[in-house]
Inverse folding.
């Protein structure tokens, strides 16, 4: 009797300790963020504030590898949609030839890169664009014939601008960087990348 | 030891011939198949053996102000025991009060046992071909080579290791920086590539096993043996993060996550990669 009472209490105590020691998912996330802060040092242009997550980064990290709840996705998309700035002069399309150069350029924003530039978009790392470029990645969809299939309309141009500026506005937790929102590309560069996608003369639409 | 060195020199010649032959094939058609052939051709003669031989010498030398060799260094299986040790790391070390991967453990042995200052132990951790040789890379090559063929077996019985694993998993999915990249951005799906470079899906057992068991590796493009700490450091550089501190807790947590996910697969490194 006495032994079984002791055993019972041991089991209860173990249960309590077990619960108390089991950190919640949010607690583990918070601790991971703290440990990361202590595990990096600033280098060149990459300061420690690069580890400070905004709402989008935090929520996308929290739900990564799981199904993203619809209301969270809607919140992320709405916030990012509101961040898109269209050019004041309304000119969405620049020079596709320069857009191609930006799409090829992989440098920019790494601690090993010159802060004076160049800064590229490195589109080919993940997307197929000009079919003559065979060295393209597959993390993102093929963008070959981007406007040829969508039509050369103002809607297509605006969509291309918005997608480059902030892809999370259209697909929450996209793998693609928010090139405008996060100040990676200048407005002039975005215009040229949009041209690569939507200009009928661009090799992308041949 | 001498055998290993002689063999290393012989295979380097073979590797250079193979590289020349295959680069011709590459020039004729740059495809994933050609790259696979290139790797296969080089597999018979891996220059990493030069690092392994140098590391074995370094392991036995008295080092630091204390004139103590690594034969006093406990990698988890007892002082100086190298055979199979890497396949069970990271693990918790009570003497240091910390979960450690191989590289942070070697730093600890250099400072706590050999009396080298932390600043000195951290000098030249990454080598640069023939210009600057790294003792750490040689030591890692030697120790890891002694686990070749051993099945990965990282235990989560210890609560410290379990916590590191959980933190590593979170860090794998941590999005940050100017580009919103996490490890999972590039390593979360099957059959993806950056440009023409295939990317392992590290969220699957098969993907983690294939990737983890083939580091460290001699990188042909860099003429240098690269360790797992370097792999993480350079991934974060490309993620646009600040600089990962060598042997930091984040580096150990991520290594714990990936090493444990590779459990059951035979370790097969130092390997050779493009």
């Amino acid at each position: 009797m006495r032994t079984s009472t002791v055993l019972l209490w041991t089991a209860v105590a173990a249960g309590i300790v077990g619960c108390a020691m089991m950190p919640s998912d949010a607690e583990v996330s918070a601790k991971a963020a703290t440990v990361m802060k202590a595990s990096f040092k600033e280098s060149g242009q990459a300061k420690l504030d690069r580890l400070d997550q905004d709402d989008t980064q935090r929520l996308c990290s929290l739900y990564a590898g799981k199904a993203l709840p619809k209301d969270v996705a809607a919140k992320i998309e709405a916030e990012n949609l509101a961040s898109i700035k269209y050019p004041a002069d309304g000119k969405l399309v620049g020079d596709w030839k320069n857009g191609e150069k930006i799409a090829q350029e992989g440098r920019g924003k790494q601690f090993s890169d010159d802060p004076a530039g160049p800064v590229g978009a490195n589109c080919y790392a993940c997307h197929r664009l000009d079919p003559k470029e065979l060295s393209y990645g597959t993390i993102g969809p093929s963008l070959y014939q981007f406007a040829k299939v969508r039509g050369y309309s103002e809607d297509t141009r605006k969509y291309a601008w918005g997608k480059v500026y902030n892809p999370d506005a259209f697909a929450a937790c996209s793998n693609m960087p928010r090139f405008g929102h996060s100040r990676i590309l200048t407005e002039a560069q975005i215009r040229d990348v949009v041209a690569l996608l939507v200009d009928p003369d661009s090799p992308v639409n041949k | 030891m001498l055998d290993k060195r002689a063999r290393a020199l012989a295979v380097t010649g073979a590797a250079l011939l193979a590289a020349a032959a295959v680069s011709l094939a590459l020039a004729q058609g740059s495809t994933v198949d050609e790259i696979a052939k290139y790797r296969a051709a080089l597999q018979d003669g891996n220059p990493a053996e030069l690092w392994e031989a140098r590391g074995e010498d370094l392991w036995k030398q008295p080092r630091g102000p204390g004139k103590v060799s690594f034969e006093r260094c406990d990698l988890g299986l007892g002082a100086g025991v190298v055979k199979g040790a890497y396949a069970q790391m990271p693990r918790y070390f009570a003497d240091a009060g910390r979960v450690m991967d191989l590289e942070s453990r070697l730093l600890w042995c250099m400072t706590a046992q050999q009396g080298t200052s932390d600043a000195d132990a951290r000098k030249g951790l990454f080598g640069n071909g023939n210009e600057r040789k790294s003792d750490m890379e040689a030591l890692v090559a030697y120790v890891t080579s002694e686990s070749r063929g051993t099945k990965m077996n990282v235990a989560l019985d210890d609560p410290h290791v379990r916590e590191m694993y959980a933190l590593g998993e979170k860090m794998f999915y941590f999005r940050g920086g100017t580009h919103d990249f996490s490890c999972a951005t590039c390593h979360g799906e099957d059959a993806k590539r950056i440009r023409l470079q295939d990317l392992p899906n590290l969220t699957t057992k098969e993907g983690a096993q294939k990737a983890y068991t083939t580091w460290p590796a001699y990188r042909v493009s860099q003429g240098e043996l690269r360790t797992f700490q370097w792999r993480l450091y350079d991934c974060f550089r490309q993620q646009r993060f600040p600089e990962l501190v060598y042997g930091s807790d984040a580096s150990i947590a991520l290594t714990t996550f990936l090493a444990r996910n590779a459990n059951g697969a035979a370790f097969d490194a130092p390997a050779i990669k493009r």
